[in-house]
Amino acid sequence: MIVLYSPYITPRVKYAAALIFERLLGVELSFTEDANSIEGEAVVKVNYSKQDLPGFFQIMPCGLLFENMLSDQDLSFSEWNGLQVFYLTEGDLPFDILSATFFLVTRYEEYLPHQRDQHDRFDPKRSVAFKHDFLRQPLVNQWVEELRSVLAKKYPQLQTRKSTFRFISSIDVDNAYAYLEKGLMRTVGAFTRSILTLNGADIRKRSRAILGLEKDPFDVFDYLIEIKKKRKLKTIFFFLVADYGLNDKNVSISSSKFRSLIKAVNDYCPVGIHPSYASYGSEEILKKEIKRIEQTIHMPIQFSRNHFLRLSFPRSYRQLIEMDILEDHTMGYAAELGFRASICTPYPFYDLDLEQSTKLMIHPFCLMEGTVKYYYGQSPEKAMEHFKPIINAVKDVGGELVALWHNDSLSENEPWIGWRKVYEEMIDFALAE
Fold first, then answer.
1. How many angstroms separate the CA atoms of 387 and 321, rounded?
2. Bridge partners of 405?
C-alpha cells in the first residue's frame, strides 16, 4: 500500500491522490499529517511536502492543492520523458503531478473568466491542452504510466494494477426519423421546401417513407443493435425528448412510435437522457425531460449527455446530481477531437466552488464524427487518419474509449454517404488485438 504524508490533507489533496494512486495505479492509499506515524516495511511512503524526509518518495507541492479558492494560474512548461509537464518543482518527479492532474481533470481553467462561443461553450482553442499541443493525448494517464515505471524501479515490492482497454459506442439521437412522426405542419412545410427547391429526390424519399414503402433513412436502430450483438459492443443511446425548438427538433414524445422505439432500444442497450438545448440552465425543463424518458422505459435514468455538448461548470453537473444522474458523457469538444480533461478514464466530478468530490462519474469522449466532417471539413475517406492515433493512445494506457456518433450520420443519406463504413472501420480498429 501507499501512505501519503502531507502537512495539510485538504479535499483537493485527497481527490487528486485518490485519482492517481487508487483509480489509475490500482493501489491501496491512506493519508497522514504525521510523517513519524508511518510504520511497516511493505509500505511505500510518499512525501507531499517541501520537507526533506529520508526514505520517502517526494512529490514536491506547488501549493495549488492547499488553496480553497480559484485564482489565475501561471503555468510554466517543460518536458519529462517526452511528455509536457507543468507546475515544475523538485523532488523524485520534476513536477507536481497531483496539482497538474487536478488542474486538468477539474477543468479549472473553465471556472476562470473566458470567452464563450455562440452556443455558450468553452472554445477548445483557448485551452491549455490545445495551446501546448497535447489535446489529442490522454496526458494524465500517460503521466501515471511513467509514474508507474518510476515506482516499480524504486519499490519492486509495490504491486500496481493496470486497467484494461474498453470501448463504448455512444449514439446521440437528435432526430429519430428524417420524415416520420413530424406532424402535419412540419411535414407540409418540408414538402413545400422540396417543391420550391425542385428537390425531387427528397419528395420521392419522403413520400415512400411516409407511405411505408421504404424505411425512414434515420431509422438505423436495428443496424446498430445488430452491430452491438455481433461485435459484443457496449453501446449507449442518448435520446432527445425536448419540446420542439430552434435547436431541439426531434420527434415529439407524444408519438407512440417514438416511445416504442425508445423502449425497444432499451431492451438491448442502456438508454440515457440527451438534455435539450432549452434545458441548459433550467432544472425545471431538465426534470421534465428526464421524467419523459423514465415514464417511457419504466426505470430510472442513469446516463446523460448534453445536446450541442453545452457544459457550464459547475452548474451543469450540479443539476445532474440533483436529478440523481450517475454518469455524464458530455466531457469532450464539438470543434476538436481529443481529451478535454486530458484523461481517458472515468472519474468523479470535483466541484471547485464547493471544494468537494461528488458521486457523479464523468466518462470523457474523444471522438465524434461531426468534428471531422463539419469542423475539419474532411471526407469519410480521411476520417480514420484522425481517429487511429487517438484510439491507439487510449489503448496504450488501458483507458476507456468513448466514441460519439449520431443515428443520422449512419443513414447513408446525404450528407452522410460513406460514413457507415467509417463507423465499422472504427469499431474494427478499436477492437483489434
1. 32
2. 171
Per the CB < 8 A criterion, the answer to whether 192 and 184 are in contact is no
Sign of CA dihedral 210, 213, 215, 217: negative
The grid coordinates of residue 129 equal 491542452
Q: What is the pLDDT of residue 192?
A: 76
- Residue 143 and residue 140: Cα distance in Å, rounded? 5
Query: How many Å apart are CA 110 and CA 208, to the nearest integer?
Result: 48
- Three cell numbers written together for 381: 475517406
DSSP code of residue 407: G
Which set of grid coordinates corresponds to residue 51? 520537507
Q: What is the rounded distance in angstroms from the CA atom of residue 128 to the CA atom of residue 140?
A: 14
Helix-strand-coil split of the chain, %, nearest 5: 40, 15, 45
DSSP class of residue 21 equals I
Note the pTM of the prediction, 2 decimals: 0.94
Cβ density class 334-354: b for 16+ within 10 Å, e for less: bbbbbbbbbbbbbbebbbbee
pLDDT number for residue 190: 60
Q: Tell me the three cell numbers of residue 289.
A: 425531460
Q: What is the DSSP letter of 80?
A: E
Q: What is the DSSP string of 335-390?
A: SS-S-TTS--S-EEEEETTTTEEEEEEE----EEHHIIIIIS---HHHHHHHHHHH
> How far, in Å, CA of 37 to CA of 321, rounded?
38
In this predicted model, what pLDDT tens digit does every residue of 170-217 receive, in sequence order?
999 999 998 887 765 676 566 577 677 767 777 777 677 777 778 999
